[in-house]
Amino acid sequence: VITDDAVVLGLLAATLGVVFGTARSERPALKAFYRVVPPLLVCYFVPALYNSFGLVDGERSQLYFVASRYLLPATLVLLTLPTDMPAVIRLGPKALVLFLAGTVSVILGGPLAILIVGLFSPETVCDLGDQGGQRVADRVGESREAEADADDQHEVRERRDPCVGAFELLHVLAQRRDGGRVRTGRSGWVRSGWRFTPW
Amino acid sequence: MLTTARLLRAPVFYLAVGSEANIGGAASAPVVASAFHPSLAPVGVLLAVLGYALGTYGGWLSGQLMRLVAPA
Questions:
Q1: Which residue, of A27, A120, A168, B3, has the greatest Cβ tally within 10 A?
Q2: Sign of the dihedral through C-alpha B17, B20, B21, B26
Q3: Residue A112 — φ and ψ, nearest 5°?
């Protein structure tokens, strides 16, 4: 068992590097492999194998805490940087105002739901202590992002759910199906801009 | 959103894609957009990426608001 978190981080980073590197390879064997097995699935699956085979111990490692508290917010900011704002603005005011109306409703919807439920069932929402509130805030922020997948699956794994592997598989396949539909007939439009988020 | 669409007299296309870009993301918004016309898919992608950009900060704001209104 590798106990040094720095080594575990390096191992995971190297694993992702190998997966994404080989996913971009032009070799026919690799291309055929990744056409059947999506790279994203391998990204979840191989680290899960490390855990299953006792190479790393997810229960004892502090890596998840550091990754979710420090690395995740930073990567979320990075994710928002390449937004093509001029192109978005060219869509016109109607599309933007309508979109923002949707965003505002989503943002206000959560607190409103807590307010309403709290009126007649405070015990349902009152145990959001300091820690709880932070977790909800984290969760909501993440839920808008692809990164949420990794976190959800980790939470499930923490509860030692035996069907975690199947869950990951389903989840990635569902995304794959969406991505496939987006790409058909559009010559990889979505894929071209964000190499690591093909769905 | 429905009220805003009504007030703006915005096309249903914007309503559908804007909604999906907020809730779904870069996978589903282009699918909704291309249901109207295949050449409109990039509009869905643009709005969905805007959704990612705003959602990161909006999600944090929403969480803080929830914290404020949560009893005790």
A1: A168
A2: negative
A3: -60, -45
| Short-list A59, A73, A74, CA closest to A5 | A59
pTM of the model: 0.51
Give the residue on B whose Cα is nearest the Cα of A131: B67
**Three-state SS at A197:** coil
> pLDDT 10s digit of each residue in chain A, 199 long?
788 889 999 999 999 999 999 999 899 999 999 988 888 889 889 999 998 888 888 888 888 888 888 887 787 777 667 767 777 777 778 888 888 888 899 889 888 988 888 888 777 776 555 555 555 555 555 555 544 454 444 444 444 444 444 445 555 555 544 444 333 333 333 333 333 333 3
Q: By three-state DSSP, how is residue A2 classified? A: strand
Provide the sign of the torsion angle of the four alpha carbons A129, A134, A140, A143, taken in this order: negative
Nearest CB to B64; choose among A79, A103, A137:
A137
> CA–CA separation, B11 vs A111, rounded Å?
29
**Beta-carbon separation of A94 and B10 below 8 A:** yes
| Residue A190: CA count within 13 A, CB half-sphere | 29
